[in-house]
Structure formats: C-alpha cells, structure tokens
Specification:
Number of strands: 6
Main location: endoplasmic reticulum
GO cellular component, one term: oligosaccharyltransferase complex
Structural class: alpha/beta
Largest sheet: 4 strands, mixed
Number of helices: 12
Subcellular location: Endoplasmic reticulum membrane
Strand content: 5-15%
Radius of gyration: 33 Å
Organism: Chrysemys picta bellii (Western painted turtle)
Keywords: Disulfide bond, Endoplasmic reticulum, Magnesium, Membrane, Signal, Transmembrane, Transmembrane helix, Transport
Order of helices and strands: HHEHEHEHEHHHHHEEHH
Helix content: 55-70%
Amino acid sequence: MALGTRASRWLLYLPAGSCLLLVLLLLLCVQLGGGQKKKENLLAEKVEQLMEWSSRRSVIRMNGDKFRRFVKAPPRNYSVIVMFTALQPQRQCSVCRQANEEYQVLANSWRYSSAFSNKLFFTIVDYDEGADVFQQLNMNSAPTFMHFPPKGKPKRADTFDLQRIGFAAEQLAKWIADRTDVHIRVFRPPNYSGTIALALLVSLVGGLLYLRRNNLEFIYNKTGWAMAALCVVFAMTSGQMWNHIRGPPYAHKNPQNGQVSYIHGSSQAQFVAESHIILLLNAAITMGMVLLNEAATSKGDVGKRRSKLFSGICRISEFYLLKAF
C-alpha cells in the first residue's frame, strides 16, 4: 500500500510530457501483445485446418481463396508443396495424369510415414479450379511443382525442374529434401504386372522351344540375331535408357492454346515421342545402307546396279537432311 502511494507521488512529480510518453509505451506494449496473441491463434487455426484436411486426403485440393489464405498469406511455420496441373478431361493433358500419380505416391508415403508432422503439406491447384492463381503467378504450363517456404517468397530453386529431371516420386522426394530438410522414403504399392509379363514371356519361349525341339536351327539364324542386336542399338542410341531413368512425358501440350510439342526446345532434355522419331530415322538409315550394300554386290546389269546405288545414296542423304533439320 505504501509502495503504491509512493509510486503515485512519483508520477505526480513527473513532467506532463513524460507521463504521456509512459502511457503511450504502455498502450503500445498491450497492443503488441494482443497482436502477437492473435497471430499465434491464427497460425494454430491454419495448421489445425491443414492437419484435418491431410487426415482425409494426402493431397489437399485448393482453389484460389484457399491458396491465398493457407499458402501465400502469413503467418506460416510450415512448408507447402503445390502441384499446378490441368486434370480435367477436356484439357487432354496425359502428362498431368502421369505426374499426378507420382505425386500421389509421394504424398501417401509422407502421410503414412513415422516422420509425418505438420511441417510439410502437399497440395494441388487445378487450372479449372484456380485459374486466377495461374494468372497471379504468370504460369502458362502444367504440370509444375513449387515449394513455398515458411518464410519469404519462393526462390528460383523452389520450382522443380521437371523437364530436366522428370517427375518420378523419388526425384521429387530428393528435391523436397534439398529444400526443406524433410526426407521422405517412397513406398510404392505392389505391382505384379512386370512379374506376370516376365512369366508369360518365359512360358512362351519355353513352349516354342518345346514345340520346335526337333528343329532348333532357327536359334543359329544370323539374320535373326542381327535384327535383335539392331533393335537394342536403336533403342539405346535413340535415348530409351534416358527415358527410363528420367521418366520424361511423351509430349507436351500447352494448356493455354492446346499446341502439342513432340520435340523438346532444350538440348538438355527430350520427350518420349522425340526418341521414337530418332529411332525410326536411325532404322531407315540402316535399312538404306543394307539395301545399298545389296545393290552394289548383287549380280546383274552394271547400269541397273549403278542406278540402284545412286538411288540408295539419295535416300540416305535425304534421311540425314531430315534428321539434321
């Protein structure tokens, strides 16, 4: 009681300006404390809502309003991976469907892992549900994967390089680990189609050998083995192994104008259709060389052989020109 009376007397002797300053500082502290409390409540509400959605689906579907509230607007203490896509049938984006399957595998692996927490969420924005988001981010292609960090704006490295790396779940998990330090072990559902196909192939070859057990001369057919070797060479030189490792899309369709591209614009990547085109060109060139050799070594009129030789050279030159341009 005496202490309170002494403080009151001390305030009376202070100048009016000092008293006003103390009152303003006190009001500012109260306001800041209330703002911080409101900010914490808003963050807890956002995290609780995201966790509730994640308990229902591993990938949270978002429209423009949800994206701006939970992904763009502060406060945030969590990372968000967003897949921008166009999955509606009228968009005819086959690459989007394939990428979505890998994205679902990755999100399910995170959702059902022991390390699952509220520090990372997987979301998806479809063009037909959030066209305003695409316009806001100046995005004109799909699919696209972006990471939105807990603080600040996304940087260049926060956009996944799909054209160069591919959209396999393992590659996405590695990229997420680099951006968020969250390591996800990918668990794929069991797929027995490869085992069944191998068993059918072995059964077919075994049955063929059993039926032809008295006449196995075809195994020593040089032409057959040469054709098989050429098929392997064509597959490797056209980039099929690169496709198997990177998992690129077959082609790319621009969701804005619907234009389909079969040739990749960069020298660092390719589409599956592009490798098929190269395979056919290589096969045509090889066939031309074989025909050219047969025309040069066959018996007959020299004039006819020269005519065939000149025709073969013209065909090979034409294929090389097509391949170059």
